[in-house]
Amino acid sequence: MSAADPAHATDPLNAARATGPLSDTDASRAAARSSADPARATSPLSAADTARAVERLRAAESSRRPCAPVRDLLGVTDQDAAYAVQAAGIQARTAAGARRVGRKIGLTSKAVQSQFGVFSPDFGVLLDDMVYADREPIPLDRFLQPRVEAEVAFVLGADLDSPTAHVADVLRATDFVLPALEIVDSRIADWDIKITDTIADNASSAALVLGSTPRRVDAVDLPGMGMVLEHRGDVVSVGSGAACLGTPAAAVAWLARAVARHGHPLRAGEVILSGALGPMVPVRGPGGYRARLDSLGAVHAVFSGPDGSTAASDSPQEGTRP
Fold first, then answer.
1. What is the largest CA-CA distance in the chain?
2. Spacing of C-alpha 222 from chain mean position
């Protein structure tokens, strides 16, 4: 979940900084974040509070009725507590038969990070029941308040298991990249979320659509890639690879380090959603969205109504080759 950040995009050094070691300043900020929430700093999240947060989010999803934020249980800044809730929720879904297929990165825009009062992205888990093929009908009633954003998906051909992984490691480990659309959806009413709410809610991830035009990573200009998202033939979002931490590869490097430090490194075969290339757009009814990514191709999300209708007049428009 992110938006274009032109100021950040124009500084190529930001991509290198994003993959560097934790500085003394960053460490001080991290300590400040921990101490900013005394209740959480002095009292770890109880098993009962974890269970209550998981159940609140699960009930919202199953009933299709958004819930109150979970920060009353987690605090506002305790990301470790929020990731514990996320992990418990994912464990419940995999125990019910879902299979992990990848990860997603959110908050890759500095502007959006500032809104949340954080200094780094967040991440979530992708499951097999979240994945749709290009143009495959997506039942709109599986979501509560969905939004769509365009991204680059990395499909790994090798493990990325180092807590010091950098951009070159990502490029070497990537089998191919695809155009992708992520459907983000908050289980929390009116998107009234702070950082702990969105992390606990699996980084607000709900589904993804993968394009069918794989490209070698060395055949595309990741930071220079332009993106246009269209709906009913109108342009509704624009962006570029540079808006995603300078380059989507830097976002994946950040993720590799973060999850390795959490003890769950990236593995060969995983699909990685690297973060939004432009602002996300609300989905207000059945119909189609098309994202065109320079040198990577197009990907289409087609939302269907309760009767299976996709509103043909609202389908993705063709005719312009990306």
1. 59
2. 17
Residue with tokens 């979002």: 237
- The Cα 80–Cα 44 span in angstroms is 9
Residue tagged 């794989």 (tokens): 214
Please give the Cα distance from 254 to 167 (Å, whole number): 9
Torsion of CA 269, 294, 273, 266, to 10 degrees: 40
Q: Using pLDDT thresholds of 50, 70 and 90, give the confidence band for residue 311.
A: low
- Measure CA 306 to chain center: 27
What is the residue whose two structure tokens read 């300590």? 31
- Tell me how far apart the alpha carbons of residues 227 and 61 are, in angstroms, rounded to a whole number: 31
pTM of the model: 0.83
- Output the six-digit token pair for 177: 């990249």
8-40 b/e (C-beta count within 10 Å ≥ 16 → b): bbeeeebbeebbeeeeeeeeeeeeebeeebeeb
- The CATH code of the domain at 6-314 is 3.90.850.10
- How far apart CA 318 and CA 237 sit, in angstroms, is 17
Contact at 8 Å (CB) between 298 and 292?
A: yes
The residue with tokens 């930001």 is 14
DSSP, residue by residue, 26-51: HHHHHHHHHHT-HHHHHSPPPHHHHH
What sign for the dihedral angle of Cα 265, 271, 276, 281? negative
CA 208 to chain centre: 10
How far apart are the C-alpha atoms of 78 and 51, rounded to whole Å?
Answer: 16
Distances from the Cα of 305 to the Cα of 9, 16, 233, angstroms: 38, 44, 20
Q: Which tokens hold the place of 160?
A: 């990325």
- How far CA 183 is from CA of 161, 178, 180, 220, 243, in Å, comes to 27, 16, 10, 24, 19
Q: What is the pLDDT of residues 129-174, one digit of tens each?
A: 999 999 999 999 999 999 999 999 999 999 999 999 999 999 999 9
